[in-house]
Design goal:
Helix content: 10-25%
CATH superfamily of the largest domain: Hexapeptide repeat proteins
Shape: flat
Radius of gyration: 26 Å
Strand content: 25-35%
CATH architecture of the largest domain: 3 Solenoid
CATH class of the largest domain: Mainly Beta
Distance between the termini: 77 Å
Strand order of the largest sheet: 5-8-11-14-17-22-25-28-31-34
Number of helices: 3
Number of strands: 35
């Protein structure tokens, strides 16, 4: 990615690095892809093998063994955070400044009862229903439908084709990406006389501040109380969160995770992609659930939890499955043999 040299140099100089060599800079790269005049940031040791020549400025995270590279470098305490700071300082070069273009598009429909803050942008064909409150510097994309009695705090961004159902609360500076659905009817039914009867979910969703909600995320409304997402929670694409789920502050959820109803997840948990969590469970703070894990009981202690079998060559996998299918018989034979020995 290319940046103006003066801007990139000043960003590095303004307290981000303790040491700064006098050199010409023309962009940011990683070992997998960089030019000679790039700043190259290295986040983990596995990236070092891709370095084939000396970049103009090589920055290593302090956790990396410095003896593994023959090139000149400097270290920082957190290379990924440095990258975040650099990108934030240059973001305006690539994305429009919402405050500068704040307006309600002529095709948007905003109910007269809606309370609009300062510098609100509403894109084409979006609809905002009655009794909704929109804070300052909120940006709403095209074809968004915000239904009645919602609240969007200051600095919220809602991407195109997203739907917020009634009683959705979105905290400050939270970003919701395209085609997500917040607060829809949960999957709550009761079988009565052979027919499924739907239970009304009327209590909405509460999402805290500084959250990241990816695209195609579905968060169902609660029945008696809201489904709750804590502050600074990050949720990847294609995640399903059922009604009455509670997710604690700072938790990260990777793509394609499904969380069943009324489960409570603690603070600063990490949930790997493709995992499934059954309903009415409690997950402790600081739990790590690795990818494709199926959680069917509460996890009451911090730690790392896994399930399933990793992919391997088909013949080996089939042999292991055959052994597992025989395991109950082998255990039974073992105990019978032990009993005969004891007799």
């Amino acid at each position: 990615m290319k940046f103006p040299r003066t801007l990139l140099s000043s960003a590095l100089l303004e307290g981000l690095l303790d040491t700064y060599p006098l050199c010409e800079l023309n962009g940011i790269g990683t070992p997998e892809s960089y030019d000679q005049d790039n700043v190259v940031l290295v986040f983990n040791p596995s990236q070092l093998k891709f370095l084939t020549s000396q970049p103009v400025l090589l920055i290593l995270d302090k956790k990396i063994d410095h003896q593994e590279t023959p090139f000149s470098f400097i270290t920082v305490s957190n290379a990924r955070f440095l990258l975040k700071q650099l990108l934030e300082r240059t973001e305006h070069l690539f994305f429009a400044d919402h405050d500068a273009i704040a307006h309600i598009h002529s095709t948007a429909i905003v109910h007269p009862s809606v309370v609009l803050g300062l510098n609100v942008t509403v894109g084409p064909y979006s609809i905002i229903d009655q009794d909704t409150i929109i804070g300052d510097c909120v940006c709403i994309g095209a074809n968004v439908h915000i239904q009645k009695n919602c609240v969007l705090a200051n600095g919220v961004e809602i991407d195109s084709h997203t739907v917020l159902y009634p009683k959705s609360f979105i905290g400050e500076k939270t970003k919701i990406y395209a085609s997500s659905v917040i607060g829809m009817q949960g999957f709550g039914f009761e079988l009565v006389n052979g027919e499924w009867q739907c239970l009304s979910h009327l209590s909405g969703v509460y999402i805290g501040k500084n959250c990241f909600i990816g695209s195609h995320v579905s968060i169902a409304a609660g029945t008696l109380y809201p489904t709750r997402i804590g502050d600074n929670v990050i949720i990847d694409n294609h995640v399903q969160i059922a009604h009455h789920v509670e997710i604690g502050q700072g938790t990260a959820i990777a793509g394609c995770v499904g969380i069943a109803g009324s489960t409570k997840i603690g603070k600063y948990c990490l949930i790997g992609g493709g995992s499934g969590i059954a309903g009415h469970l409690t997950i402790s703070d600081k739990v790590v659930i690795t990818g494709m894990t199926m959680v069917i009981k509460s996890l009451t202690e911090p730690g790392t939890y896994s399930s399933g079998m990793p992919a391997e060559e088909n013949y080996t996998w089939r042999k292991k499955i055959a052994y597992l299918s025989r395991l109950p018989h082998l255990i039974k034979d073992f105990y019978q043999t032990q009993k005969r020995k004891n007799d």
